[in-house]
Amino acid sequence: MNDIPARPKRRTGGRLRPLLGGACATLVAASSVVLVNVAHADTTRAAATTLKAAAELSGRYFGAAMGQDRLSDSGFLTIANREFDMMTAVNEMKPDATEPTSGHFTFSAGDAIYNWAVQHGMRVRGHTLAWHGQQPAFWRNLSGSALRSAMIEHINGVMAHYKGKLAYWDVVNEAFAEDGSRRQSNLQATGNDWIEAAFRTARAADPSVKLCYNDYNIENWNYAKTQGVYNMIKDFKARGVPVDCVGFQTHFTGGSSLPSTFQQTLSNFGALGVDVALTEVDVTNAATNQYQGLTQACVNVPRCVGITTWGIRDSDSWRGSENPLLFDRNSNPKPAYAAVLGALNAAPTTEPPTTPPTTPPTTPPTTPPTTAPTTPPPTGQPGGCTATFRMANGWPGGFQGEVTVTNSGSAAVSGWTARLTLAGGQTLGSLWNGNSTGTSGAVSVRNADYNGSLAANASTTFGFTVTGSSNTAPSDVSCTSS
Ligand code: XIL
Fold first, then answer.
1. How far from the centroid of its chain's Cα atoms is residue 218's Cα?
2. Residue 460 preceded by cis peptide, ω within 30
3. What is the pLDDT of residues 201-260, one digit of tens each?
4. What is the 8-class DSSP label of residue 343?
5. What is d(CA 152, CA 130) in angstroms, rounded to the nearest whole number?
6. What is the pTM of this model?
7. Which residues line ligand 1 (CB under 6 A)?
8. Packing angle between helix 262-270 and helix 224-239, nearest 10 degrees?
9. Which of 92, 309, 310, 316 to mutate for ligand 1's pocket (most ligand atoms within 8 Å of CB)?
10. Catalytic residue numbers?
């Protein structure tokens, strides 16, 4: 079981401290009362012994970030493979890395991370497309409509390369100032609508990936910056701007520790109709009570889909001198690891409902005709469905697949089950936008809560990774509806 949360810890000083790398200017001074809202474990369920297995018990992921240099670090890779099922590139998918000069895209470093991750059964978060930091030099020489166009071309170029492959994209990163107004950046100077322009471009470029806004110092509900971002997401949802998720970086330092309101913040954002996630977690000295509390805040909120730590061992961290991660320099789990594992295992069993990355219509549905239709309704089969497989990416030891389920009947269906048979030696890894039964041989996939209803001719997709000795496509792909 979990440790009992420690007494509320008081902040000892009001000094704001700068973060490394210049990406974040300062962190907010926030109260640091530990969350006491402990979820109750399902006692019929065996406790999982890795972070990813424990997260998966409640339908969540547990992720890490890595740089390309870690691909030759066997200590890192061993833990990553054992404990994590989601990966983020620390720097390799940022604008300066992917488009160093105008129109010349370079994906080798990002691809190396992507390939290793999916070949080990993980999904990948894309980070990030539009940001004031780590911009290509040529953006710095542009302004106005030329910079806006450069941003849009960048989003189109990078998203085309990763189309159909990523679970999430941080479309816009860190666009707010501490007082809740927009950050004064060169992108902001192109016009206040730059963020929605980025999201609309992103949706058109790849409708399969969830589109996130990501920021730091938005964990405390009673903080101006949190309110600023919340109001933007609320406005976007009301106006049909395509945003699917909000990432809370969760960099907790001496000046900004776990706020007592974190769960409330996640819950309030989730109520706007977006997924929420903790995307870059690190905590000064890996304070056990803070790690436990931030994990509980997530697992207590159905729309919180997962947690990512910004590195694995303290030696991987951009804040290395603060030892802020779950594993020490010798790859040993620290006390905070056990606290996180316990909180994940204690999560309520209900899977977090998520919505597919589709944009609600911006215009209200048209009024139905008042006169009776003159032709009789079609008489075809009321509830047929078809399933077609597409290999999104394959490699010698596995693949990432996508199945499109189409209602081929003449009436709406309220649910579907797709079936497919994996080749011998293959094992199902992650699966999204559906619920699977079986991990080898004959596998069936039932619709998720949000994508079971299909109008006649409508389609939806689910995706998955498979590891094994071959990248043979599945056979016997079929579908039944209900
Ligand atoms: C950091 C990287 O970890 C560093 O290697 C780099 O020098 C600066 O950026 N918020 C973000 C991340 O969204 O992209 C930042 O990553 C950390 C703060």
1. 17
2. no
3. 999 999 999 999 999 999 999 999 999 999 999 999 999 999 999 999 999 998 789 999
4. H
5. 9
6. 0.72
7. 21, 23-24, 90-91, 173, 249, 280, 318
8. 10
9. 310
10. 174, 280
